[in-house]
Write a structure and sequence with these properties.
This protein is mainly β and about 180 residues long. The protein has one helix and seven strands. Strands 1-3-4-6-5 form a five-stranded mixed beta barrel. The radius of gyration is 26 Å and the shape is extended.
Length: about 180
């Protein structure tokens, strides 16, 4: 048995770079890939009590529906949750040197937080502009609970009154509970 699973929450480091296959243009493309970086920051106190930060940068690769979501809604600074798997690939660059990189191939993206603007004016994700539905396996799924409740809380109901007890109720029972 083996498992290759990555789960990250962080901030996008740059706008996604999207490439199209089978058509070379957004209108004719049957497949697309988006590449972007994600920063995760760990905050901790060192031995002297001083706050320290350690930021890790992750290279993300999103295909098909996830790439479409990234292209439309993800911008530099967006906070996202990503699930995926580690993938290592090697190639030889133009100078003949062997190069290797480790990437996270995205299976699922959830948009977190809220930023100014919307998809039509070049801004990042806003709940009103978010797509409906779920794109599991290569796509988007809405968070299970909204960040801010949109409906007012229901009015409090009066507490039900207990039924009157019989005069000898509970006298013959033994209470063996320790509290």
């Amino acid at each position: 048995m083996s498992l290759n699973k990555v789960m990250l929450i962080g901030n996008v480091g740059k706008d996604p770079e999207v490439r199209y296959f089978d058509g070379n243009s957004p209108q004719n493309a049957s497949s697309k890939v988006a590449r972007f970086t994600l920063a995760t920051t760990e905050r901790y106190r060192d031995r002297s009590g001083e706050m320290r930060e350690n930021t890790e940068w992750h290279n993300l690769v999103a295909w098909r529906n996830s790439a479409e979501l990234a292209e439309k809604y993800i911008r530099k600074g967006s906070q996202i949750y990503v699930e995926g798997k580690l993938s290592t690939r090697s190639w030889t660059d133009q100078s003949g040197a062997k190069r290797t990189t480790t990437e996270i191939v995205v299976d699922n993206i959830q948009l977190l937080g809220k930023r100014e603007g919307n998809a039509t004016d070049g801004g990042a994700y806003t709940p009103a502009a978010a797509p409906q539905g779920s794109y599991q396996q290569q796509g988007y799924s809405r968070p299970s609970q909204p960040a801010y409740p949109q409906q007012p809380a229901p009015a409090p109901q009066p507490a039900p009154q207990p039924a009157p007890e019989a005069p000898d109720a509970g006298l013959d029972e033994v209470d063996d509970l320790p509290f």
